[in-house]
Amino acid sequence: MTREDFKTHLRSALAERRPVVLRHLLDLHGAAAFADGLAAWSPRLVADALSLLLQTQRMAVMRHLPFALRNHELCVQVAHRHSSGGVAPLCLPPARWVASSTARSIP
After folding, report:
1. Which of 10, 15, 49, 63 has its CA 20 to 30 A from that of 98?
2. Angle formed by the axes of helices 55-62 and 19-29, to 10°?
3. How far is CA 52 from the centre of its chain?
C-alpha cells in the first residue's frame, strides 16, 4: 500500500466512523505512519480520529503527532479521556467532509 493509498483509507475509515478499520490501519502501519497521515488534518479531525482508538493507541499516536496538534486542546482532551470500553467518544458531532474546495463547511 502506498502512502497516498494509506491516507485515503485513513480518511475513508474516519468519514465512515469505522474504528475497527482505523485500529487495523494503526496496527498494520505503526503509530508514526498513522500520525503522519493525520498531520495535515485539522485538530478537530485528528481529535475525532483519536477518539475512535483505544487509550493505549491514542497515546502512541499522540507521541508522533506534530507539536501543534499534540498540544491542541481538543487532541489533549481526547487523548487523556478514559472510558470503560477503551474508546473515548468525542463530544462534537462528526466533522463533515467537503467535496469541493470552494464549498463552505456547515457548522
Report:
1. 63
2. 50
3. 7
| Residue 89 three-state SS | coil
CA distance 85 to 74: 20
Q: Which of 3, 14, 12 is nearest to 36 (CA)?
A: 3
CA dihedral 21, 23, 28, 33 (to 10 degrees): 110
Q: Rounded to an integer, what distance in angstroms lies between the CA atom of residue 58 and that of residue 99? A: 28
Check residues 16 and 77 and name the one with the higher pLDDT. 16
Residue 17: how many CB atoms within 10 A of its CB? Answer: 11
Answer yes or no: are the C-beta atoms of 38 and 10 closer than 8 Å. yes
Grouping H, G, I as helix, E, B as strand and the rest as coil, residue 75 is helix
Q: How confident is the model at residue 20 (pLDDT cuts 50, 70, 90)?
A: very high
